[in-house]
Each structure stands twice: as C-alpha cells, then as structure tokens.
Amino acid sequence: MQRRVKTHHMVLGVMCLMYFIAYIDRVNMSVAAPMIKEEMGLSNLQLGLIFSAFAYPYAAMQIMGGWLADRFGPHKVLTVLSLIWGAATLFTGFVGSLAALLVLRLALGLGEGGAFPTATRAFTYWIPLKQRGFAQGITHSFSRLGGAVTPPLVFLIIAMAGWRESFIVLGAVSLAWTALYWFTFRDTPQQHPRVTESELAEINEGRAEKPRQEKGPTPWKRLIGGMWKVTLVDFCYGWTLWVFLTWLPSYLKDARGFNLKEMAIFTALPLLAGVVGDTLGGVVSDRIYERTGNLRFARVSVLVFGLVGALIFMVPMISVDSAMTAVLLLSASFFCLELTNAVLWSLPLDIAGDYAGTASGMMNTGFGVAGMISPVAFGYLIQTTGSYSLPFMISAGLLGFGAFMALFINPLNTVKREVASLPVGARLSGVGSA
What we know:
The chain is an all-alpha fold. It has 2 domains: 1-205, MFS general substrate transporter like domains (Growth Hormone, Chain: A); 219-434, Growth Hormone, Chain: A. It has helices at 7-40, 44-53, 55-72, 74-92, 98-113, 115-123, 132-160, 163-184, 197-203, 220-254, 260-292, 295-319, 323-339, 341-352, 356-385, 389-406, 415-419, 424-429. Helix 3 runs parallel beside helix 5, helix 4 (74-92) runs antiparallel to helix 8 (163-184) and helix 10 packs antiparallel against helix 13. It is globular. The protein starts with 6 loop residues before the first helix and ends in a 5-residue tail after the last helix.
C-alpha cells in the first residue's frame, strides 16, 4: 500500500517551488540584460536603473506584506502577490521602452517583496515547532538553487526562441504556481480537508496556543523591541549576499581573469554551496534544540558559527594568488554564510508567533536595505580604488559585527510572553514561542 504524503509536507513542497520560481524571476533580468541593452539601445546607466528598480519596492513591502498576511491570512495575500510578480514577469516579454521596463521591475519588487514574509507567516501553524529550522532552510535552499540554474535555463530559452520568450515562459510558470497554491493551501491545518487528527496532533506538538480568531491590534512596540537586533544581523548577512548575487561574475572576470565559459561554471559553484548551507543550517539548529531543549543556544550558535566562518574564508580569498583557490574559498565562505539564513527566518516564528509575518518583514527589511546600498557601494569602491580588496574587507568587517550582535539575540523573549501568562515550565523551555 502506498504511503500517504502528509499535508504539511505537501504545503512545504509547494512553498519550496515558490522560492525556486521567485528567485528565477528575480535573477532572469541580469541574464537577458545584454540582449535587452542591444535591442533597445540602453546605456549602462539606464541598465543600472532597471537593476536597482527591483530593490526599492522590495524593501518597502517587507513589513507591509507581513502585516497584510497577519491581518488577512497568507492564503489571500500570497495569491495576490504572486499574481503581481507573475504578471510583471510575463509582460516584460512585450515591453518596448525603458519606462515600461522600469514599471514592470517595480511591480516585480512589489510582488516579491511581501512574498517571503507572507510565506513565513504561512508556516506559523503548518510547521511543527521542532522542524522550523529545516523548513526555512529547505525553502531558502530552493531559492539559491533557482539563482544557480537561472543562467543556463534563461540562456537556453533565449537560444531557442529569444529573450522576450524567456520572460513569457517564466511568467506563465509563475502564474501556474499561483493556481497550484490557491487550490492546495489553507491558512491553518484545521481548515484543510486533507489533514487528519493524527497529523494535526503532530503539527501542534509542543504548542501552547491555538490559532487566534480575533483580529486585535498589532503590537508594534513589542515587535520592534524583539526584532531590531535580528534585523541588524540580517543587514550584515544581506550585505555580503548581495555582493555574491551581483558582483561575483565581475570579480571572477576582472580580478581573476576567467573567460565567459569559466565564469558560467564558477559563478554557479558558490551558489550551489549555498544550497547545501541553507538546508544544513536549519537542520543543525533543529537538532541542537531537540537534543538540548535550549532554543536560544540552537539559534545563536549557528548564527555565530556561520557568520564567523564566512569571515574566516573571505579574508584569505582577498590576497590568495591562485584563482581556483579563490573560488574554493568563496564557495566555503558562501556555504558558511548560508548556514545562517534558515535561522534568521526561524527567529520571527520563535519571537512573534501570530505576528510572524510582520516580524519577518521587519527582519527582511535589513536585507532589502542592504540590497539598495551594498551593490552600489561595492561598485563605487571598486571604481575609486581600482581593486576589489577594500570592498571585500568591508564585507568581512560587517560579518564580524553581525556575529557580535547575534550573541545578544534571545528567541525566548517572545511577543506572546509579554501579552499572555504562561506556566513556569513553558517559560523555561521556550514552549509557547509559537
């Protein structure tokens, strides 16, 4: 007899697919840019405006998207957001002007900006407490996998049909995912007809609270107090991640002398290392919590280890002579960096519970602001110094600062605990930080 797939595993799989598709839609513009630039006669400055247009609504939508998910439920909100970014991707294949490109990139940032906080809110009642790190790790590993496969995938479609067709095809895939999500997801397991009593008991193991029905005011002050250190650490993490996502190919070409074929191969290597790091970081954090019962140690230890490890491998990469050694060090650095990603996205669930959408939006605002500043600052420093050394040293310094700030994060200081009275045993164990 075939074993039945559990519904919360199915929900997790649908979310993994969303992260994968969203990152392809985010990165595809950089792959198609040379063809778009040539056809439309764009300057480098105009191309830069198109690249940066994504980041501003993306950052602005973090808190708003999470708040909307908390208020109206992730089922409705993520459906609307995915419709926006799917349509923006598809219609990019029909543009004929710079203005249209800018508007559609802004729409893409608007849709994707609220998507990840909304997805985190969706996990609040679907993912068992002891599997949160794994869930955040595996979903974000799919996003890194999406970034790694985008260049060959988009180049293949362009070679077969053209750059416009690449956006049309990818936009259609995004809209198909929207339909899949609408029919398979519900805001809570209790609302899903496929969830059995035994699966519901598994999902709710260790929880002190049930899904709230009332729509009370959002505790902004408590959320800010609980999340500001996480947001700062996420900024430090995001600064370096944006460097990898935007400047890695240029670094391999300019500083290490790789040709186009070598760049295609060795740009993917660090990103693939990040796929492993994303999943492993969440699994390790969950295992530490399961064995020790100490949620703070489980989260903070992985954060500090990952950020310090990324720093340790990045510093010698700057001065090493061998190009291949530099690639391996970059891969090791990015692997360690991505160990922290699942933990960062688990912390809003730990700290905020019912308000995890808003809290994760607060956290990922740090990443969004880093996306607005890091690529530009990195490029300015390269232009003014004629070297990649100083920009990478600044990135390493921020990694060290992030590791230091991570020491002060305490996921047991939850918003729930400030507004509800819990038994002493639950207070000590961290149970109830739903």
